[in-house]
Each structure stands twice: as C-alpha cells, then as structure tokens.
Amino acid sequence: MKNTIFYLLDNDTTRNGLTAVEQLVCELAAEKFRAGKRVLVACENEQQAIRLDEALWQRDVQAFVPHNLAGEGPRYGAPVELAWPERRGSTPRDILISLLPWFADFATAFLEVIDFVPDEASQKQLARERYKAYRVAGFHLTTATYTPPGTT
User: Fold this and answer.
1) Considering only CA atoms, which of 78, 38, 88, 87 is closest in space to residue 57?
2) Neighbour tally for 76: CB within 10 Å
3) Average pLDDT over residues 129-149
4) Residue 126 C-beta-side C-alpha neighbours within 13 Å
5) Does any domain span residue 151?
6) What is this structure's pTM?
7) Where is 114: in which H helix or E strand?
C-alpha cells in the first residue's frame, strides 16, 4: 500500500535561513538516510534546493547526509537527491519528500511520500488540495505534528 504522511506545522519560524518546513526536511532526509532509504526531495524551485543543499553540507560530521543536486554527484546519485521542476532526478528512490505546492503526478511512482501542512492559511488550502489528490490516487494518509526546536 502507498502511504503519505502530512506533517502539520504549528508555526513558520525561520532559523539559519530555513523555514520550519525546510528545517524538518533536513531532519527527515537524515533520518531516512540513516534507515538505509534513498530519498528524492522535490523542491519548489532551484533556490530552495540550493538552500537545502547548503544546510545539509553544514551539518555536523556525525550527522552528515550524502546528497546532491539533481544532475550532479555520482553516477547513480547520492542517497538523498534535491530536485526541482526544471531538473528532476532520474534514479530510482524509495521516498519522496515533496515541497511542491501542487500534487506531483510522479508521486504515484513512490510507495512512501512525505508532505507538509504549513501554518499559513493559503498554504494550508493548497495542502488540503494535495491531500485530496493523494487520496484519489489511492494513498493511505496519516498526519503528524511538528514543532521546530526552540519554539516551545
């Protein structure tokens, strides 16, 4: 069965130049990498991919996450690949972490998808539309709450 988890964010605190969603993406990518999964992070645009690339490079040595921007890196890509609409990854991945504001048709190629419900009202509405699209596509849907560190 295909699964999608939506992380509900209770604020959008920016820290070290990353939004709450982007902070969580870095943590989830690291967690999935440590679990032996290959991850595609579908960014909204190239600038977001570059921000996440920099954030992943700046992690402590013990928390390093092998990653690359789509089209760069080793022949079959690093375990975590950062892509955006104009530059999609081409190697098979286990998990999609989607930062796209719309439902990505290619999401149906994944057994596991991670998506987000930001705190801002218009972004919540877009997340509701994606939630409906995942349901129509046959995904089992769950939610989880996330509070960025240092905001409680």
Assistant:
1) 78
2) 11
3) 90
4) 16
5) no
6) 0.93
7) strand 112-117
- 34 is in which domain, residue-wise? 3-146
Instruction: Give the tokens for residue 91.
Output: 């190697």
Task: Answer yes or no: is 63 within a domain.
Answer: yes
How many structural domains are present in the chain?
A: 1
The pairs formed by 135-142 with CB atoms below 8 angstroms and a separation of 24 or more are 137/2, 137/103, 137/107, 137/108, 138/2, 139/2, 139/3, 139/4, 139/113, 140/1, 140/2, 140/3, 140/4, 141/3, 141/4, 141/5, 141/6, 142/3, 142/4, 142/5, 142/6
The tokens of 83 are what?
């892509």
Distance CA 40, CA 50 (A): 14
* Cα distances (Å, whole numbers) of residue 83 to 37, 68, 103, 108, 151: 17, 9, 15, 17, 29
Which of 124, 111, 106, 116 has its CA nearest to residue 22? 116
Closest to 46 in 3D by CA, of 58, 36, 37, 54: 54
Q: In this predicted model, what pLDDT tens digit does every residue of 12-22 receive, in sequence order?
A: 788 888 998 99
Domain CATH number, residue 79: 3.40.50.10110
